[in-house]
Every structure is written in structure tokens, then in C-alpha cells.
Design a protein that fits this description.
The protein is mainly α. Helices cover 59% and strands 0% of the residues. It is built from five helices and no strands. The longest helix is centred in the first third of the chain and has 11 residues, at 2-12. The protein starts with a helix and ends in a 15-residue tail after the last helix.
């Protein structure tokens, strides 16, 4: 779970704070999800699905989610 949430967030270009706000949780809650200390409940997983345009299986089973390379404005 933690790698997938980080990948979803990074691929969307969100900070932990932005991801948390989009789901309606605190940044600390999102951070705990990413490190695997706690896990989102079903209503929050529904929000993650909608916000990040993924399916439940993608979130839970790490299906095909990878982190895209980060590009700065100066990158070609």
C-alpha cells in the first residue's frame, strides 16, 4: 500500500499536503498511510480511487503503478 500511495501522489505531482487535502484527511494521516503505519478505510479508498483515477485492485495489489521520473521546468 505505501509504495502505491506514494507513486499515485508523485505521478499527480502532489505533495503529501495536497494529496491529503484532496482526500479530506490531514497531512499526518496521509504520511502514515504512505509509510504503512495506518491504512485508509473504505470511504477514503473510494475517494482515492476517484481523485487518482485508479481502481481498488490497483491500490491494494500494486498492479501496474510506478513512479514517473520527476521533470523540472528546466528539463527537456
Amino acid at each position: 500500500m505505501k509504495v502505491t500511495l506514494k507513486a499515485l501522489r508523485a505521478n499527480k505531482g502532489y505533495t503529501q499536503q495536497q494529496a491529503a487535502k484532496s482526500i479530506g484527511v490531514s497531512a499526518d494521516t496521509w504520511r502514515k498511510w504512505e509509510i504503512g503505519q495506518t491504512f485508509p478505510d473504505v470511504p477514503k479508498i473510494d475517494k482515492i480511487e476517484k481523485e487518482f483515477e485508479v481502481k481498488y485492485d490497483d491500490i491494494i495489489f500494486l498492479v501496474g503503478i510506478t513512479v514517473k521520473p520527476y521533470k523540472t521546468k528546466n528539463s527537456a
